[in-house]
């Protein structure tokens, strides 16, 4: 007597758990055919990026050029940020944003954020919000300034889960920033900002991805000038923020050595050491 065949239907959550345990090369095969795993790979935020690669930065054999289909002739590509194996880039016009997994080739073009600084500057960033299990992209535009007159600012935040941009309140920008892309650390994107006077570093601003708002982060108490044994002025050059093992870090160049300042307890000014 023929045995009846039982077909089990797996839930999408269970399929995700299975896919997370498969090698990248096997996952890439699903992209070549129409299938349920392919749909999950392209639509589930947790599946777009889940690979951590630990390679010594001095290992030249690990560095290679990557081909990406969204590159356009005459359009420079800027790095917005990277997180959990995902890379977010924008083209020069700041209208075309992409989230891309170089390992699997999966990519998603984001809607136009529709912000324009009209000759001003941008700050942007990309990161993972662990509280909601969501990837988010921030873009803030600051209009051009005439002497004594600031022409306004605008901010937009994209949620991969919502698949849309929302308007957010940004800080008034009486400052300049060396770098446009924010440094992801402790669930927030960070920028070092300075006054109009050269090298007068004043503060760190951050965007909390979970609370979706800007905050101030304490700046290290370090003089911008020191004196040598002959009372000659020694200039100290700050080279921006970094993420060092999950802690916010400052690179400080002195005449004969480089000093790293690390915030040991996030948000505590006295913990810089």
From TrEMBL:
Residues 70-221 form the F-box associated beta-propeller type domain. InterPro entries: F-box-assoc_dom_typ3, F-box-assoc_interact_dom, Gal_Oxase/kelch_b-propeller, SCF_F-box_component. It holds the Pfam family FBA_3. Coiled coil: none annotated. PANTHER family: BNACNNG10540D PROTEIN, F-BOX PROTEIN CPR30-LIKE. NCBIfam families: F_box_assoc_1. This is F-box associated beta-propeller type 3 domain-containing protein. It comes from Carya illinoinensis (Pecan).
């Amino acid at each position: 007597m023929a045995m009846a065949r039982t077909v089990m239907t797996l839930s999408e959550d269970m399929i995700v758990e299975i896919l997370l345990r498969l090698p990248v090369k096997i996952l890439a095969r699903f992209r070549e055919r129409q299938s349920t795993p392919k749909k999950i790979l392209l639509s589930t935020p947790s599946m777009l990026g889940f690979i951590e690669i630990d390679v010594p930065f001095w290992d030249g054999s690990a560095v290679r050029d990557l081909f990406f289909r969204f590159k356009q002739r005459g359009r420079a590509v800027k790095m917005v940020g990277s997180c959990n194996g995902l890379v977010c880039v924008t083209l020069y016009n700041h209208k075309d944003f992409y989230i891309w997994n170089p390992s699997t080739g999966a990519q998603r073009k984001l809607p136009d954020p529709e912000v324009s600084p009209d000759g001003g500057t941008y700050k942007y960033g990309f990161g993972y919000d662990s509280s909601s299990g969501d990837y988010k992209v921030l873009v803030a535009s600051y209009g051009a300034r005439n002497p004594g007159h600031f022409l306004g600012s605008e901010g937009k935040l994209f949620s991969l889960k919502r698949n849309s941009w929302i308007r957010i309140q940004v800080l008034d920008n009486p400052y300049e920033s060396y770098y446009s892309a924010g440094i992801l650390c402790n669930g927030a994107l960070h920028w070092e900002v300075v006054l109009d006077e050269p090298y007068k570093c004043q503060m760190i601003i951050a965007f909390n991805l979970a609370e979706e708002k800007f905050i101030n982060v304490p700046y290290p108490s370090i003089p911008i000038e020191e004196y040598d044994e002959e009372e000659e002025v020694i200039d100290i050059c700050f080279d921006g923020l970094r993420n060092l093992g999950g802690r916010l870090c400052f690179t400080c160049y002195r005449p004969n050595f480089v000093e790293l300042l690390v915030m040991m307890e996030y948000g505590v000014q006295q913990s810089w050491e």
